[in-house]
Structures are given as structure tokens and as C-alpha cells.
Amino acid sequence: MPQLNPNPWFFIMIITWMTFSLIIQPKLLSFVSMNPPSNKTHTVQSTTPWTWPWT
User: What's the CA gap between 6 and 8, in Å, rounded?
Assistant: First the structure.
């Protein structure tokens, strides 16, 4: 069964991870978020209870 021979697949996996780690990942990490999170205070909305007509 040739699928069990790790020789060509291991090399492909290593090349793929090296490409991702050394080329693609630094390019993706260099982007600045266009919508940074802000420190907003949480506002609590006051609600009034519903008055049921049959009670």
C-alpha cells in the first residue's frame, strides 16, 4: 500500500508548514485591525414591568 510510505508525504507536509510559518503567517499578522475594541461602559436599560389588564 503506497499510502503508508511516509517518505513523499512527510516532505510535502514539512514544506507546507514551512511556507505557512515563514511566508503567509507574517504577512497576515502585519495587518492592523480596522475596528479595534473599545472600552465602553455597559449601560443598563431600565425597564418597566408590563401591567396585565386581567390582574
Answer: 6
pLDDT tens digits along 1-53: 556 777 888 899 999 999 988 988 888 888 877 777 778 777 888 888 888 88
pTM assigned to the model: 0.45
Residue type, 7: N
Cα R_g (the chain), whole angstroms: 28
The one-letter code for the residue type at 53 is P
Phi, psi of 54 (to 5 degrees): -100, 10
DSSP 7-35: HHHHHHHHHHHHHIIIIIHHHHHTPPPSS
